[in-house]
Design goal:
mainly alpha, elongated
């Protein structure tokens, strides 16, 4: 079907491909929707994801040797995240608190030369530990993020999907940049607390949902969401600090 579509990309073949790969959209929408507020309709996420799937079908080149599912899932996720961001459904006060928390993490990281504890962050913000945990709960609205967005924190770079190299034309510079990005991300993750590292590993690398991670750790899904938010904030602060060095 792909060979036929490549030779003659008509509407009939496009619709067949969309129907064939539609389950990918539902899967990605479900993953992104985990931890979002209840008023965010997964159906709306699926609708946004369909546009990402269509874009992937139009731009996919089978000759590059990349599996379409891998390419499409990145495009679908990107389309969903772009739509969520464009809606600006996070209250201004929450975004303001996010900026305050990120600046506090950067200050503490530079001063302590390590990842600050919750107690240290709460003291820096002038709030209690309980208030900080409530803040994590509010900030989970802003933690819809792809891991590649964390890698590019503080850098002027586009999507990793848009820069995937041709298997037959390896770019040495791209290899070095990718290797450096992975090194920085690994270093930042290594500086997280053990529990935060587990959450990041299970969520981003093992593709577990927040509910499934909660069962592994023996805590509630809400608590896992707080841990995920904390980990994202700390990774973003650390990577931004590295990029500015």
């Amino acid at each position: 079907m792909w060979r036929e579509f490549q030779c003659q990309p008509d509407q009939r073949l496009r619709e067949r491909l969309v129907l064939h790969y539609a389950p990918l959209v539902k899967y990605v929408a479900g993953r992104v929707g985990t931890g979002l507020p209840t008023h965010v309709d997964v159906g709306d996420l699926v609708q946004s994801g369909i546009f990402g799937l269509l874009d992937a079908i139009e731009k996919f080149d089978p000759e590059r040797g990349l599996r379409f599912e891998t390419y499409a899932m990145q495009r679908i996720r990107g389309a969903i995240l772009d739509d969520l961001r464009s809606q600006d459904w996070v209250p201004r006060v929450v975004r303001s608190r996010l900026r305050e928390a990120e600046r506090a993490l950067e200050r503490l990281g530079a001063r302590l030369h390590r990842t600050p504890t919750d107690a240290e962050l709460a003291d820096e913000l002038g709030i209690s530990i309980d208030d900080l945990r409530d803040l994590y709960g509010q900030l989970q609205l802003t933690s819809v993020v792809a891991l590649e967005d964390l890698v590019s924190a503080g850098k002027d770079s586009g999507s990793l999907v848009d820069t995937l190299p041709d298997d037959d034309a390896v770019d040495p510079v791209a290899v070095l940049v990718d290797r450096d990005n992975r090194r920085q991300l690994a270093e930042a993750i290594a500086q997280l607390t053990e529990r935060d590292r587990i959450v990041v590993s299970l969520y981003y690398f093992e593709s577990l949902t927040l509910a499934e991670i909660g069962k592994v750790l023996g805590v509630t899904e809400s608590r896992v969401s707080q841990l995920h938010t904390r980990a994202v904030l700390r990774l973003r602060a650390r990577l931004t600090e590295q990029a500015s060095v």
